[in-house]
Amino acid sequence: MWQKITSVSNRHIREIVRLMNKPSERIERGWVMVEGLREIRMALNFPMQALELMVCRDICSEDELKWIEPHFVSALKTEVNAEVFSRLAYRENKDGIIAIFKAEVPRLFSLNLPSNPLIIVLESVEKPGNLGAILRTADAAGCDALIVCDPRTDIFNPNVIRASLGTVFSVPIAVAEAKEAMQWLEKHHVKSFAAALVDEARSYTELDYTQGTAIVLGSEAEGLSSFWLRYCQQKIIIPMRGKVDSLNVSVAAGVIIFEAVRQRSQSNNA
Prior knowledge:
This protein is of the alpha/beta class and 270 residues long. It is built from 10 helices and 12 strands.
């Protein structure tokens, strides 16, 4: 059964917009808002409860709707007009479909690691776009986990979902405190490499990443904390040949991770 809403002043629509503008309350409720068919397809494979499907039939194709609707049998289904949908949408290229889920923040115990895993650890990431871009890299590289330590942005922030192209739902991800993550890495015999501008750092191409490896990166504004600089067994840098001394954290993550992938591929083919 579908309900139909044609006014932006509708109480239900006002409540959704309010939660969109209040991240802390949205996080407290465990709400995850996913826009776009591609992203929703990926979200359906993540352990979440479907709460609502919102569709603008003027935009969403009937074929897309026929595919997606059976996944929301027990959820509230709402049809809205273009005006209401534009109030809810946060993407420029709109598909005419939004899904609302309820999810718990994933923790370390939910991760299942293979032998010699390749892991990204992010400390205090604050920009949703950077987290999303690193998730895309992690997905493309086939990383075994991404651990977000002491985050300053919600991993299910709509801009994280958008920037990651939905890979926040495909990459094994967990949120943890720094000490908890450190103990977890030790338990799984994972060697950590801190990307840091310090005197003892070596070029990222000089190290061996073919065993259990965690690439640890900090925020662009502050870099890594003293905790991770003390803990990580090796400090690495990407040599700069121009006038700037560092890269955007998402770019740096991609450069280092794909060097690790290259080494592992060569090791497997040897």
